[in-house]
Each structure stands twice: as C-alpha cells, then as structure tokens.
Amino acid sequence: MDDWEAFRAAHKGAEPTTLRIRAGRVSEGELLTALSRRGFDLAPIPSVEGFHRVENAPYSVAQTPEHWLGLFHVQQAVMGLPTLALTPRSGERILDLCAAPGGKTAHMAELMSDRGPLVAVDPQEKRLRALLSNLYRLAHPNVLVIAGDGRTLPDTARFDRILVDAPCSAEGNYRRRRGRMVSRKRGFVDHITSLQEALLRRAVHLARPGGVIVYSTCTYAPEENEAVVDRVLRDEPVESEEIPLEAPHASGIMEWNGTRFHRDVSRAWRVYPHHLDSGGLFMLRLRKLGPSTPDDGSGWSPVPAAFPGEDRQAATKRIEVALSGLRSRLGLPDKLLTELGWMARKENIWAHTAERWPVESWAEASTGGANGGAGERRGREGWRVVTLGLRALRRGPGKWETPTNHFLGRWGKHLAPERQVALHRSELRTLLEGTALPAEGRPAGPVALLWEGRVIGRGIVGRTGLTHQIARAYADRLRAILDHEQGDEHHGDEPA
To answer: Which of 79, 109, 199, 218 is catalytic?
Structure first.
C-alpha cells in the first residue's frame, strides 16, 4: 500500500457521522435548511452522490424529527458506493442477495424511483426486522422482502442487476467497532469464503445474460475479496468491467501469498478509511456473458390481488370496496389509487409499486406444482414472503378499511383538506401525552396529522375529539425527540 501512513492515521480518529438524503421525499435544500435550523452543519461528500457529512451537531442527528419522518438515513459514506456502482434503474428487476439491515436496499429503491421489483433476501429473522424498520421509515413501496438463504433461491426468474454485499470479517469497520474485530481463525476463514463464493456463483446463475452483478465486502482480506472473485471469474460466464464512478480508491491486489489473480481483478476497487474518511470496502462489478436474446420476462408475473393461499375473487372485491372508501371518505384521487398495486393479506391490504414478482414461479419450482403456498418455508432450503410494499389498510371492527400510519406518512398529503390536521408543537405534545383535542366541525373518522408541513401519522375524530393513533413505540420516540428541542419553541410552533 503506497499510502500506509495515511491508512494508519485514519484508523486513529473517530469516524464521522454521515447520512444519505431520502431523494423523492425531500429536496437537498429543504433538508439542509431544516437541520440547520436545529443547529446541524452538514457538508456534501462529492464522491458519493446524495451523502453528507455531519460537521457540527448539538445532539445525535438520529434524534431529529427529520430522521423520524424518514427524510434521511444515517449510513457510512463508503456503503453508498456498491449501490451506486450497480446503477439500478426504474422498472428493472433487482435482487439484493444479502439485504439486512437494509441501508443498501433502501438506497437501491431510491435510485429506482420506487418503481419496479426489488427483491431483498436475508436468512436471519432478527436482521429482517431491522430491514423492515428501515424500509417502512423511509417509505419504499416497491420492495419484496424474502426470508431465506440466497444460495438456494429458485432459478425460475432472472434479474437485471444483483448486489452481493456478502457477509465478511468486517475489518473495514475497525473504527466503528473501536478495534473489536471478528477473530479470523482458519475455520472462520474457510466458512466465510465458502459462503461468499457460493453467494456470488448463485448471483451469476440468477442474472440474465447482459445483467450486472456487484460483489462487495467491508473487509480488507484478499482471501474474502480477490481470491473469491478470481475463482468465479475463471469458470463462470462473467467478465469484470470498469466501475462507473469517480471516487478515491486503490485497485485490486493482483497477487497474494504466491497466487496470481485473474487479470479482471485489476478493475476491483479497494476503498480505505483515508479515501473518504469512512470505513473500508472492496467491490467489483461484473457483467454476465451469454446470447443477447430478447427477454420474455419468464418467471415473472403480475402481482395478484390476493396473497398466495387467499381467495383471489374475495380479495379483488375487498380491494374495490376499500378503494371506493378511500375516494369517497378521504378524498384520495383516482390517479394515485390506480398507480398503486394492491394486495389483500389476512386483515391487511398492502400498497406496492413492484408491478411484477417471481413468487408464483418460485412456489411452483419449490413444490413441483402450481398450487404451492408461497408463504410457507420448506425445510432447510425454504423461503417465504415476508412483505411486499407498505401496509396500507387494516380491516377495523366495522365495514371500513382504516389507512395505516405508514400509508398516510407516504401519501397522506393527498387526502381531502378536511382530512388533514396541522398541529402546533404544543398541540402535538398534548396528543402524544394521551389528551384529546377539540375537533369541532371536522367529519368523524381518520385524519392525517401534520407537523411542520409533514404527515406524522394517523389521528381519529370521534366523540371525545381528536386523538392520535400512532403506535406507542413510535409516539414515545417522537416525544423524546420533542424533548431534545424543549425551549426551542420557534421550531414548528406555528402550523404549516
């Protein structure tokens, strides 16, 4: 390494906090202005589009209303590079083979403008909960979350682009972990490199001819990086290509412990902490070779109105009635309702923008027939659908379907004016403390609660007045955020 001293010096300092602006929900200027009013100074990171470094902070930027609202995501700057290198586009079929905790998944959805199927796969239930939390907070409606081992996904559907952000020894996170690293004993190295190689080979198999694959890790070890891609390059139908980004980096190592690597490894990037004042990263972009035949979309089908195992006719009728209620009671425009896809699942109706999914062909491949239940695991090599899009409506005790907080957070500003309630800071605090507000002149039923011009969740107008229906955990966190700004009453004191 030519700049060894810079590498060493970078590891002695604390890693700065960086964030990615949630494009599509807030403009850069709007977010920077809002955070500046709260005392935060941010600076853009030119090499990583959409990312900013927190230069000065009165408290954690994650304790701001803007974070609670999903207007940005706290993420290492270096971790934006694999997603940018993949270059996902709107309408493409994208696979995140190792998705949790979801920062890169959400970044891909954002670059897709939330249009087209993005399949996010991870085998660990605990990590999937973190993935879902991030997707819901950031309000991405085009993600199909699958619980399963990416190495055993059915091969009935092909993808345009695949990210393999593989499990690794995470040496690049030395600064974040304050020197606490995974022990790289021989058994661990054998296990992790075998897993990495299997995941990458599976990605090659699942990509269409001409499709793009990005392999990345957050470690420095050549055994987990160059050695893995070297073996795949030698006997799989792929070739490497230049990464279409401009950022400081080193090239891939071409020889290690007496082994000379494939010439294509030279196009790999090694990003060290001193390059971006962030963590460490290895990545290589691959293109699958093969005949350039028209893609007939086999293995992909329109998302049905009913979750697998539920009655499609009943689901279709239920959705029709629900959408009619959204129009007549809440004033949602036809254009919005027809642009979204809808799926009924038990007591909920989900809204999505995936348009197509591979689930039905996967279910047929897994069972040997077309009637398999796609929501059930099948032993060690099983998979199951966790969610698709955002939970939009929930069947209440009456005949009406009630919009959820996630749905209103994304689309609540399209409600009729009488179904939107702008709150002062003091009024919001009163609601969160469990006290109803007067609601004279407002129609009974659900409303969108707004603070500082943003929908924060669902309220309900009833006999006792206006109350909030934000889940307790979310409401408690919002109260804690307000406490951070106590005494700063010029922030949001007037309704937007």
So the answer is: 218
